[in-house]
Amino acid sequence: MFVGASNAPLAVLCIELFAARVRFATGAIGQALDAGLIGGSRPLVATALIAATGLALAPAYYLVVFVVLALIIMAALVPETRGADLASGEVALGASKITRNTVA
Q1: Using one digit for the tens of pLDDT, what is the confidence trace for 68-81?
Q2: Between the CA of residue 86 and those of 3, 19, 38, 95, what are the distances in Å?
Q3: What's the whole-model pTM score?
Q4: How many CA atoms lie within 13 A of 81 on its CB side?
Q5: C-alpha distances in angstroms, 73 versus 35, 48, 77, 79?
Q6: Would you say 100 and 19 are in contact if contact means Cβ atoms under 8 Å apart?
Q7: What is the pLDDT of residue 58?
Q8: Residues with Cβ < 8 Å from 70, sequence gap 6 or more?
Q9: What is the dihedral of CA 90, 91, 96, 100, to 10 degrees?
Q10: Contact at 8 Å (CB) between 91 and 82?
Q11: Helix or strand or coil: residue 80?
């Protein structure tokens, strides 16, 4: 459940932000950072939450909070790419164009 909640936004974010030729690498880096930095602490946090609150569902509330935060951040920061050529490496944002970071 934790893996699905963190990987679903990552997949969308990689498609929206990166050109097709670097999309897989950026997804892999993001997943590795998530697994190493955040995923390693999840069992400890879940155990501490259950011990502190006495609620078996406390880790689920923890998950919901972070999923909602991820959705808010994505809605605020990820540019709309509807109608844009995702393979070109450019994202149309209003009247201007933003060039995505790509590897040469």
Answers
A1: 887 888 788 777 76
A2: 26, 6, 29, 17
A3: 0.55
A4: 21
A5: 20, 26, 6, 11
A6: yes
A7: 94
A8: 6, 9
A9: -60
A10: no
A11: coil
Check residue 88 and report its DSSP letter: T
Number of other residues whose CB lies within 10 A of the CB of residue 6: 20
pLDDT of residue 42 exceeding 90, the answer is no
Find all residues with CB under 8 Å of 81, minimum gap 6, and list them: 15, 16, 91, 92
Compute φ and ψ for 30, nearest 5 degrees: -60, -40
C-alpha dihedral, 29 to 91 to 98 to 17, nearest 10°: -10
- Listing DSSP states for 8-56 in one string gives HHHHHHHHHHS-TTTHHHHHHHHHHHIIIIIGGGHHHHHHHHHHHH--T
Average confidence score pLDDT of the chain:
74
Residue bearing tokens 């690498």: 25
Site of tokens 């880790």: 59
Give the model's pLDDT for residue 2. 61
Higher pLDDT, 10 or 92: 10
